[in-house]
Amino acid sequence: MARRTMGAVDLAMPNRRQSNHMSLPRTEQLQLDRFLDRLQRDAELEIGFPVAFDFDYSALTPFLSFSLNNAGDPFMPMTYLLNSHEFEQEVVAFFARLARAPEDKWWGYVTNGSTEGNLYGLYLGRELLPDGIAYFSQDSHYSVGKNLHFLNMRHIMIRSQPNGEMDYEDLRETLRIRRDAPPIIFANIGSTMKEARDDIVLIRSILDDLAIENRYVHCDAALCGGYAAFLDPPPAWDFEDGADSIAISGHKFIGSPIPCGIVLARRGHVERIGHSVAYIGSVDTTISGSRNGFTPLMMWYAIRSLGVEGLRRRIVESLAVAAYAEQRFKDIGLAAWRNPQAITVVFPQPPQAVCDKWQLATAGGYSHIICMPHVRREQIDRLIGDIERAGGSGP
Ligand SMILES: *Cc1c(COP(=O)(O)O)cnc(C)c1O
């Protein structure tokens, strides 16, 4: 899809009469124009972060003229009528189906992203199991430590395997010596650096072996939640596999110009924490008060225009580009690898100038690219050329 020049967009202003006729002085207009030029240049060299760029939501521009606000529970009526709850409901229902949530026994909302979705999942876990201990792996996203701190939860970090997946033996041994405290498992469905997926069916079987019945499993599917259901075979990540809650980022695989996400949970869990609030005429089941009414509209537009088949095609093509990239790295002698059915390709850190130019995230001597749907083979070829010219790996 073509990127659009925002300067040319004609904001349909249905409430123009009341607007304060915002208009920029010339110097600030030039500042905006320069910013747009820079974004167009930088976007061309962005293949390292887990965000898709191939969206076009220009059909939704008229809705930017309204102060949409989805405060409160998306499934409850709300006093303020400029909300997009009806679209939010459809979005959440779509992802609930992808995540094989039990019919009519799920709940969820559109978040500001997976940091919020993960906070919500951990919060539910803590409310249900107040004496619980959270377990997460070394490869978990940096925001997990912050969320655990917000919630003042006891927690234990579990070792990771070299591929980034949780070390299940370390989990088993750690759980065995703390059988008095119910576990709240924080599983990665696509870790940040290596796109490793913790196997929640295996984790549940470990809990079963240890006869631990009071437990909670949250899945951080920020990265993979947009396509896990389309992988063949799918990873163990969803409600039928035993998740109690799942966080998915909307701006990652689906793609959106504003960060957003979807959080899903078993309804019974949520019913135990909601409080009615007279002021908004709704039930306060969400973390934020005022909530974005525009991002649910974008997610709705994406799922309805792409459909299940369109989403499936996107991941098939992304996997093909990732396989291509892995091979191109190997062809120039770099030890690149990726997890099974992953769009993240990990390789030894290239010289710093290459990392800077291509905005490559790097940790522990390794860099990665993430073959999101906008990433083209021709960009991979250019990156490979730059690495070769700079002399291979090493900063
Ligand atoms: C991106 C990411 C997060 C944080 O999600 P945001 O949507 O950026 O808040 C958490 N966990 C993983 C694995 C991620 O990739």
Characterization of the model:
- With 395 residues, the protein is an alpha/beta fold.
- It has 2 domains: 63-303, Aspartate Aminotransferase, domain 2, CATH 3.40.640; 308-390, Aspartate Aminotransferase, domain 1, CATH 3.90.1150.10.
- 36% of the residues lie in helices and 14% in strands.
- The chain has helices spanning 26-44, 85-98, 114-128, 143-151, 168-176, 200-209, 251-255, 267-271, 294-331, 352-357, 377-390, and strands spanning 106-111, 133-137, 154-158, 183-188, 216-220, 245-249, 261-266, 275-277, 282-284, 344-348, 362-363, 366-370.
- Strands 1-7-6-5-4-2-3 form a 7-stranded mixed beta sheet, sandwiched between helices. It has a 3-stranded antiparallel beta sheet with strand order 10-12-11, with helices on one face. Strands 8-9 form a two-stranded antiparallel ribbon.
- Strand 8 (275-277) and strand 9 form a beta hairpin.
- Helix 9 packs across helix 11.
- The longest helix is centred in the C-terminal third of the chain and has 38 residues, at 294-331.
- The radius of gyration is 22 Å and the shape is globular.
- The model is unreliable at 1-10 (pLDDT under 50).
- It binds pyridoxal-5'-phosphate (PLP).
- The site of pyridoxal-5'-phosphate has 16 residues, from helix 3.
- Pyridoxal-5'-phosphate (PLP) binds next to helix 3.
What labels would you give this structure?
disordered N terminus, single chain, three-stranded antiparallel sheet, 12 strands, 2 domains, Aspartate Aminotransferase, domain 1, seven-stranded mixed sheet, globular, 11 helices
